[in-house]
Fold this sequence. Notes:
Oligomer: single chain
Number of helices: 3
Shape: elongated
Structural class: alpha+beta
Amino acid sequence: MNDFYLIWQISPDSNGVQSGNLTRLFFSIAILIIGIFIAFATKDNYHCHSNKKRSPYSILIVGVIFSVASTIFYLFDAGGNDMLYDAFINNEYKTVEGEVHVFHEQRAMGHSKGDIIEIDHETFVIDAFYRTAAYKKIIAHGGALKEGVYARIRYLEKNKNGHILSELEKGKNRSILSVEIRK
Length: 183
């Protein structure tokens, strides 16, 4: 019989990271299309009625810059989050189980390091204000990993480039992929 129940598990759109990236990408494409329309619609009627010259192409330029920046951000950000989900699906994670010991709690409004917890001599930092698809619900926001709770977590010790972490990076950069709590 399984004494644990699932609290959280990574998914393709965990913490809204993927949908946020896509929204930003679609928004930038919309600005680009509006910029093209305005540039072509006003190119023959461009008259400046003030001392300041305003180009009808300015929104087009903003659209191009925003689209390029959003595309680059999307490609870099999505790769790391896809790697986390793929590692979970392909069972390329480590599992630790034991009683949770809390060494530091992040304040609800941030401005401090994340929750620092330890389970079976393995240290984890959970930061609510870090953009990731991994588990990031701190104790102050109702997180499940509180002092004395018996938990099983699955985690990954690789960075976004897929490299194994050094000892110095481990606690801060471990990505929690699944959280289970004993009933």
